[in-house]
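OP here, attaching both records as promised.
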Amino acid sequence: MKKLPSGLYVITDERLMRRSDFIKKVTEAAAAGAGIIQLREKASSLRDRLELARQAVRAAHAHGAKLVINDDPGLAAAIGADGVHIGRDDASVEEARALLGRRAIIGVSCYGDVDLAVRVQKAGADYVSFGACFRSPTKPKEALVPLSVFAEARRRVKVPLVAIGGITPANAPLVYAAGADLVSVVSSVFAGAAGQAVKKFDRRKK
């Protein structure tokens, strides 16, 4: 079982970040202690995404963070990312592993479905995520998942459990207490000063 980096798991959102500030905020988050940065960028052209992803992976690695790509194993392979995060409509774990190799980090969104988490773990996923845990400003219509899903998943799943959806410094301790290994955040970090926000989450966990 792969050991994931400690620290906050942050996810970019082009709606919250001006393009001119994008890499600056990724750098701030990594420098402040984010362990994993997920590049979620769908609005621009493939050429633009390639260049942005190359800059983002350099910024993350310069401060010891891992960078994974949302949805797109091909892009992850092209820019030397550390892995990929896939959802229900994306490539399978097996397809992503064949493209990226055994060392790549492969995470899978499991929403509130522990049976799915068991299946993707068997297929080779390195972590699974559950959510939305709370109402999220980035995905306000996402179905909420009870925090009890982490206790069930802890009994049945061996890979790390990641929580997502509306997580803030105030409610993150509840999610850790429920059994999550990592929390992933979008607007709580990238809607403001990224570095300061990451540090607030670190203090809350300690």
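Record two, same layout:
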Amino acid sequence: MHRYRSVLVGCGGRGQSHALGLLANPDRFELVALCDQDDARLGALAAKLGISRGYADAEAMLAAERPDVLCFATPPAVRLQLVELGVRHGVKAIAFEKPLALSLAEARRIVTLCGDGVKAVVCHQLKHAAHWRRVKEIVDGGDIGAIRSFHATARPSMLRVGTHLVDAVLWLGAGARATWVLGQAHGRAAYLEDHPCPDHVAGIVELSTGVRGVMEIGSLAPRHLDEANFWEDVTVTVQGSEGYARVVLGSGWEAVTRRSGGRTESGPADSSPGEPEHLRLLADWLDDSRRVHPSNLETSYQGFEILMALALSSLERRRVDLPIRGNPEAILVS
């Protein structure tokens, strides 16, 4: 095992979560410096974590510190610029917040930049919590029989939590790719936010296995939790030939399996942070290229493309086959 020299850009709440994930793996990472354009925010996190070196400029930090790993948690509008900086300064890995990008063209550029030389991961950390892993065990173990369908819902928007939702469906579907989608979009208020997108998208996703999923993401999604738990109202139900399994981010898991005799089994939500495991798996991938990270850039791009295809389908009033052909630029328009 190697210990990787690391730096962090972005010292807000999500940046702190990434920093704590690095520090939770002291045998795998050395967090040597922080960067933020807000001096007060930078100073507060540096003092809290005991990090002595701070920068206001990411390029200056990369040039001075020469890290193995660039980690960043910033507004999505600067994803591409930071990836470009990391690649230019020769980092071995880049770990960054979701969403992958704000446009299909930008996402494709990030994939191209990283290529075979940089191991990049997007922070889809929800699947490391115990209740998500329990549903994965039930599905992979065949306890609900063959997968028949998915129903996935999230009340936050497609670029805030919808990206986690699609990632979870692909993960629970054993990595099957989507072959086409048919979608509809609604609402313009979220275009005024820093994650600009429709208020709601919904549609059908067909996977290469022939299994279909129904997705409802945003303001019209069904409510499984009360308003106080809005951000945790994220649900995936896997219907099988002999039962079902459901996970709700904010309340836990439940299942009826062929072993339960019609009885509903359940368990609580695991609220422990997923970033330590997410980053530990990145160190494992750096150690051994065969140990591919479950939130690797290729998989994250597939999930992002599904969301963009749902919006494109609504815009062009047609089924969208995947991968998306050409380079449509105006998918997320108000």
